[in-house]
Amino acid sequence: MIDTHNVIAQSFRRVREFYQYHPSEIFSLKLYSHRKVDRRNYNTPSCDEVAALIVEDFDSSDHGHDIIVRSTASQLQRIYETHALYWPLQYPLLFPYGEDGYQLNIRYRGQQEGYVPGRRTRVSHREFICFRLQIREQEDGIIHKCRRLFQQFFVDCFTMIESQRLYEIRMKQSTIRGEVLQGIKEAMRRGDDEASSIGTRVILPSSFTGGRRYMFNRCQDAMAICKHFGYPDLFLTITCNPNWSEFQRFTEREQIPIADRPDISCRVFHAKLKCLLSDHKEDMYTIECQKRGLPHAHMLLWLNGESNLQSVETVDEFICAELPNPQKFPSLYNVVTKYMIHGLCDLLRPSSPCMKDGKCSKFYPKRFVDQTSFDEDGYPFYRRRNMGVTVKINNVDIDNRFVVPYNPLLLMKYQAHINFEFCNKSNVIKYLFKYINKGPDRVTATVGETYNVGESSQVVDEIKQYYDCRYLSPSESMWRIFAYDIHHRWPSVQRLTFHLPNQQHVVFDDADITTHVYLRNKDLLMMFTAWMMVNRRFPDGRSLTYVEYPGKFVYCSNSREWKPRQRGFSIGRLSFPHPAAGELFYMRMLLNEACSAMGFLIDDKEYVSAIKEVVEVAFAA
To answer: I want to staple 301 with a disulfide (CB 3.0 to 4.6 A). Which of 126, 136, 178, 234 is the partner?
Structure first.
């Protein structure tokens, strides 16, 4: 069929024919796990899946995929991933008729010629791929039936999307510069007319999903929510269940394992996650895959004042770590024993994946406890009574010591592994915030040359080089292609910028004239100065601090002004000044100390001083 109908196959050499006449070396790829790196990011895969390994992530010097094709006349030609023929060349089984793939400048249907400010008129790479991945009854859908090749295709597609985004940022960085207004003014005095001679290049923006600045800001936003509402009460982890009824019906109808259809698993999990979020108001979550095949979400939840877990009794009402009575609650017993039992480990199974240095990394089996309590660091010891209720797994009787904490209501509703933990203690908050914002999966890999020794069949792998790689799984690729949120929080957090007089940061083009840049920005209001101006118009806002202002007012970036908020709510957070900011950083430190001395900030200094005073003057009993 391909030979008959695919014109591209007739024009280019087949890879199989090339390697038959030009045998080459055989290489092997191995993944390693060691203790010198963060195992939360560098853990080895625990499932069989197709994945992309991106060496050193998307490097700044990278210019996309290095794709070279050889024609039947042995002529070489380099093409980019945005070339219309890349898809039919790379995946002839998915596009047997040589259909065109994505190419630049595809217009939206009904769009007229010409540039429209503030509106995209052309289809993005992600939108085109998402369009091709949709299920249509009138089409055969050969792409969705290719299983492993389907996984390889959309993982490759997302690497193209990500590399193209970074390429666009890199191209803009070559022409965009940034400098404070005072620096531009001093350049004018020196007679520097060319804007390219001042300022610095603009680095990777914090809006790029997964970047270091993106993750840092997400962690700071989480701390701002914590500062406003207090410590979160619950830490929840929900994992996609491959045995959900939606998946079973799909598998029976299509005869394709759900592991080979991450598009279906991501859609169903996203729908259930939205349903779970609808039951809560103040929350934040992070989506992960962690090389386990199916996605899962980490969530932090805040309870209102009436439902706060202030006592051991209320903790026991929300969280259970015991097997239910199989006679009184048979359905709950079946669900708990199916999803909420920690696997056999310790002496029962020393080779379990959770075993590190001869001990379970999750500290199972737990000890029997008659009443819930907390240790000095705030970690809970849930009630696990020895009531004689067990479940037999691999001919071993498992009791309450192996039960993962859960909430019965959520467990029965969603029929999945939902770990429910109490976390309203100061010592664990920063750890949880860093955990849910730890960044993308990574792996350590080696490439070795495989060859036979003499006449024997012994195979030797000679390691060539170690690589630190970004690990891109099918579930993560599909989740990002569908543009689902990787991080979610409610309420939103408004990052508030501030600066010293004439020290506001100005962004300008490399080809600009210095005088034009200065005149264009010298009277322009910034977020900080606009806040000062708006207090003249609205007396109600004068009683609010800068951080409290987003709760009552909203900042319009287009008009550069604050307006009274009509609906919704937002939390303000001052941007973090880096020590390299110099005067701004030191001024912030001085202001904090001054506010603390005047009693405007709440801290423990007063209590510490009182304790020291008592120690100095009090007598021993």
So the answer is: 234
CA distance 208 to 214: 6
Which one is predicted more confidently, 3 or 532? 532
Place of tokens 């249509």: 136
Residues in the chain: 621
Q: How many CA atoms lie within 13 A of 317 on its CB side?
A: 8
Q: Are strands 570-574 and 492-496 parallel, antiparallel or unpaired?
A: parallel
Phi then psi for 78, rounded to 5 degrees?
A: -95, 130
Q: Where are the beta strands (DSSP E) in 543-593?
A: 553-556, 561-564, 570-574
Coil, strand or helix at 606: helix
The neighbouring-strand residues paired with 473 are: none
What pLDDT sits at residue 63? Answer: 56
| Token pair belonging to 559 | 């008009």
Nearest-angstrom CA–CA distance, 345 and 93: 44
Q: Rg of the Cα trace of the chain? A: 29
- Could you tell me which residues come within 8 angstroms of residue 169 by beta carbon, excluding any fewer than 6 positions away? 204, 205, 208
DSSP 8-state assignment for residue 154? H
- Stated as kind and residue range, the H or E segment containing 133 is helix 125-133
Provide mean pLDDT across the span 43-67. Answer: 62
Token digits of residue 186: 């001093």
Per the CB < 8 A criterion, the answer to whether 180 and 505 are in contact is yes
Read off the tokens for 76. 């070489």
Per-residue pLDDT tens over the stretch 131-147:
888 888 877 778 888 88
Distance of alpha carbon 178 from alpha carbon 318, whole angstroms:
52
d(CA 35, CA 42): 9
Residues 6+ apart with CB under 8 A from 38: 438
Report whether 69 contacts 76 (CB < 8 A): yes
Beta strands in 335-486 (DSSP E): 355-356, 359-360, 373-374, 380-381, 391-393, 396-398, 418-422, 442-452, 459-472
